[in-house]
Every structure is written in structure tokens, then in C-alpha cells.
Design goal:
11 helices; Rossmann fold; alpha/beta; 7-stranded parallel sheet; elongated; 325 residues
């Protein structure tokens, strides 16, 4: 009987997932510890766990073989040396957000390409001004998008971009042949040499040990002065002060951001007041009762992996722990 520990604190959704595993896979012993001390006792003989696993709990585990991350790209600190070196297999929730987040990216592409920030300011003034846009319109069929991170989200975004007639370049550390919707593909170490071709730089990559601050003053200086930078991946990949200065000084034309180095974004940060910038508060994958149920998708994936684990089958969404994704 596999023992599965849901690490505290548990949300109501996570408690319902635990109940679903117990009901569907009665051979499982699913445990929900109330606090960290109880979790440390329960993890000793656990075969699997869900959630954040502190180093002291990992050290106490004697049988642990599977750990389900609570996110597709968890925050800094989730992966640490002891976990990376441990034999436990980590899986995540990548793939369930593709349609939500790719739609959010295209909202930003369309908003910036058609001058929406300027028209929204004109609306607030009650100003019927046809030239209220901050920069010339971008005719998308004549434009190029570079998508940095061509996984599930980046792949769906590429197909959306192709639907608008854009030329799409993918940049990814481990994708070989271009996936559907991608015209050309390059490894990440060639980003600096190709970024100058982009009218839109779309960042969907997770935060990894190698890409903190990848998008900085030097990288922005390589972009076209008419280009836009959009990040919905993870905030630490981008130096926001450098980005703000690049926009303020006309190095690039504008930006769309859903993620930030520090969240929430400081209310005094100059990005709030810059023209031609679209900011949303990390909501690209926000749960919405009117849309696809992300919690149902999480529950389905967790249950499928629990079944696979008990049957000795390959797990879905296995993480390369050394890369954090």
C-alpha cells in the first residue's frame, strides 16, 4: 500500500484531491499532516508526497520515491542541493496552463501592436483622439516574434502568432526540430545573436539556475528600438530597472508583464507610469469559474500519476531537477 503525504498547509482543493485519490485508488494510504512536526513524522515511511518538502523532512524520509510539485514552476527555494541530489523523482503541473497563458500573451501582443495603452489613457480623459497611440501600429503579418521557451505554453503561443501571419523564431535549451508554428529554432546561448530580429520578444521560460537576470540592459540594447518585450514566465529572469530604463530612453518601444522580480511590484516603480506598458498582477493562469477549470486539471493529472506510481508505470511531467523544470 503506497503511502502518500500531502504536505501542510493544505488548501481545500488539495484536501479534495486527497479524498479523490483515496476514493479512486483504495490501496493508497493518503495522509494530511496538520503541521510541520506531524509531516516530518509521517514522511519517514512515505512512498510519495505532494507540496513543498523542506530539507529536514527530506532527510527524514527513508522510502520517498515520488514528489509532486504544487506548481509548474515553483518559486526560488523549492529545489535545493539535497533535493536535486536525492533519488526521488519530481513531477510538476506543466501543460495545464497552455491555453490560458498563451491567450494572455496574445492579449498583450495585440494591445501593444494597436496602441491600446494610449487609447485607454485617452478614454480616461474622455478624449476622442485618433492619434492617442504611443507608437506606430505594428502590422503583424510583417512582424517577427521570438518565443523564449518553446514548451507547451510557448508552443501554443507560436500557433496563435502564426494565425496572425507572424514569422516565429523559437529559442529553447532543449528543443531540437521546430515544433508546429515555429519557423526557426535556436539554442538559448544564441539568443543574443538573434534577438535583434524580433518585433516582439515573448518570454515563457521558467526561472532556472542559469537564467536569472538574463534580460538586462545589455540584452535590451540588442533589440530593435521599435520592439516590445513581454514576460509571462518568471520574474527573476528580467531586471526590471534595466527594462524601465530601456523603455524610458527609447532603447525599446514598450513591454507587457505579468510577472516581476519581486511580487507585488513596488507601487513606486517607474514601470507603473511609463507609456506603452501593459501590466497585469500575475493572473495569466488565474482560476476563473467561467473558463477551463485549472483545479480540475490539476486533480486529473495528480490522480493519473498516483495510478501510474502504484502500477510502476512511467510518471508524467518528470522534472530535470538540476534545471528546475
Amino acid at each position: 500500500m503506497p503511502k502518500f503525504v500531502i504536505m501542510p498547509p493544505q488548501t481545500d482543493h488539495q484536501k479534495s484531491w486527497a479524498a479523490r485519490i483515496s476514493d479512486t485508488l483504495p490501496d493508497y494510504d493518503v495522509v494530511l499532516p496538520a503541521n510541520a512536526d506531524e509531516a516530518k513524522r509521517e514522511i519517514v515511511d512515505a512512498d510519495a508526497a505532494f507540496g513543498n518538502l523542506p530539507a529536514d523532512a527530506l532527510a527524514a524520509a527513508t522510502r520517498l520515491r515520488w514528489l509532486q510539485s504544487p506548481q509548474a514552476a515553483p518559486p526560488p527555494g523549492y529545489y535545493y542541493d539535497e533535493l536535486i541530489e536525492h533519488s526521488v523523482t519530481v513531477t510538476n503541473f506543466r501543460g495545464i496552463y497552455n491555453d490560458h497563458i498563451s491567450a494572455h500573451i496574445m492579449m498583450m501582443v495585440l494591445s501593444l501592436s494597436r496602441g491600446l495603452p494610449g487609447y485607454m489613457r485617452a478614454k480616461a480623459r474622455g478624449d476622442y483622439e485618433k492619434d492617442a497611440n504611443d507608437a506606430p501600429f505594428v502590422f503583424l503579418p510583417d512582424s517577427t516574434a521570438i518565443i523564449v521557451g518553446v514548451g507547451g505554453i510557448g508552443g501554443d503561443t507560436a500557433l496563435h502568432c502564426k494565425g496572425f501571419g507572424m514569422h516565429v523564431i523559437g529559442v529553447d535549451p532543449r528543443v531540437g526540430d521546430p515544433p508546429a508554428g515555429v519557423d526557426e529554432i535556436f539554442p538559448t546561448d544564441q539568443l543574443a545573436s538573434v534577438i535583434g530580429r524580433a518585433d516582439f520578444v515573448l518570454v515563457t521560460m521558467p526561472h532556472t539556475p542559469d537564467n536569472r537576470g538574463l534580460f538586462n540592459a545589455e540584452m535590451f540594447a540588442r533589440m530593435k528600438s521599435t520592439a516590445y518585450f513581454i514576460n509571462i514566465g518568471r520574474g527573476p529572469t528580467t531586471k526590471l530597472d534595466d527594462l524601465a530604463e530601456a523603455i524610458e530612453n527609447g532603447v525599446i518601444s514598450g513591454a507587457g508583464l505579468d510577472v516581476y522580480e519581486v511580487e507585488p511590484l513596488d507601487p513606486n516603480h517607474k514601470l507603473w507610469k511609463l507609456d506603452n506598458v501593459v501590466l497585469t498582477p500575475h493572473v495569466a493562469a488565474k482560476e476563473d469559474e467561467g473558463g477551463a477549470n485549472l483545479n480540475q486539471r490539476r486533480s486529473d493529472l495528480l490522480l493519473d500519476n498516483a495510478r501510474r506510481f502504484a502500477a510502476g508505470e512511467d510518471l508524467l511531467n518528470v522534472v530535470d531537477k538540476s534545471l528546475w523544470f
